[in-house]
Design brief:
Helix content is 12%, strand content 26%. The strands form four sheets. A three-stranded antiparallel beta sheet has the order 3-4-5, with no helix packed on it. The longest helix is centred in the middle third of the chain and has 10 residues. The radius of gyration is 21 Å and the shape is elongated. The model has no long low-confidence stretch (mean pLDDT 86).
Length: 185
């Protein structure tokens, strides 16, 4: 199928086509099945943001909260602690876990091509809570333990900081009780 896109003609080959190489106007472009692109040109190369699930390219180079990234993570907002972009896993961990289990789980998580996952800080938990609808997948039932999420902040030897996603309440929660986990990077 060919469509006109601006001044360029768009050719759609489908999902199962495999690696593709195109030679046009003295430029060779190779598109790989892993999503990587090689461009052989003496001209400029412009990188545009990935298309979202609706198949339309994002309007700006900056992602919007809730945008699914090419690696499968979700843009969650700006971390109040690092002032950098923060990405979340697209879903909670499959099981609730104690604080120590959650900390260990995040440290060992190898997902979406990244190994730098961690529990969110207390301030980052508020970002996740405030953006929960756009990010998606949070348990907002308020039930215990699935509706509560661990932060990275221990209060003392027995208590760590958690947040309930039904109403945003934050408070100390016994480290030995299970809670939900959503990792960030």
């Amino acid at each position: 199928m060919t469509q006109q896109s601006g001044n360029a003609k768009e050719i759609s080959l489908g999902e199962d086509f495999g690696d593709v190489a195109v030679n046009v106007n003295g430029v060779r472009v190779e598109v790989r099945t892993d999503g990587s692109i090689l461009a052989y040109t003496n001209g400029n190369v412009k990188v545009c943001p990935v298309a979202n699930d609706d198949g339309k390219a994002a309007a700006s180079a900056e992602p919007n909260i809730g945008d699914k990234m090419p690696d499968g993570t979700v843009f969650a907002g700006i971390s109040p602690d690092t002032k950098k972009k923060m990405y979340a896993t697209p879903a909670d961990a499959s099981l609730t876990m104690t604080f120590n289990e959650a900390t260990e789980y995040a440290a060992k998580l190898d997902a979406h091509g990244h190994q730098d996952w961690r529990l969110p800080t207390k301030a980052e938990m508020n970002v996740l809570f405030n953006n929960r609808a756009a990010i998606g997948g949070f348990d907002i039932s308020g039930s215990n333990p699935a509706g509560w999420y661990w932060s990275a902040l221990p209060s003392n030897e027995w208590v760590a900081w958690g947040q309930r996603f039904s109403d945003g309440y934050q408070g100390g929660y016994g480290k030995d009780y299970p809670s939900a986990v959503r990792c960030v990077r």
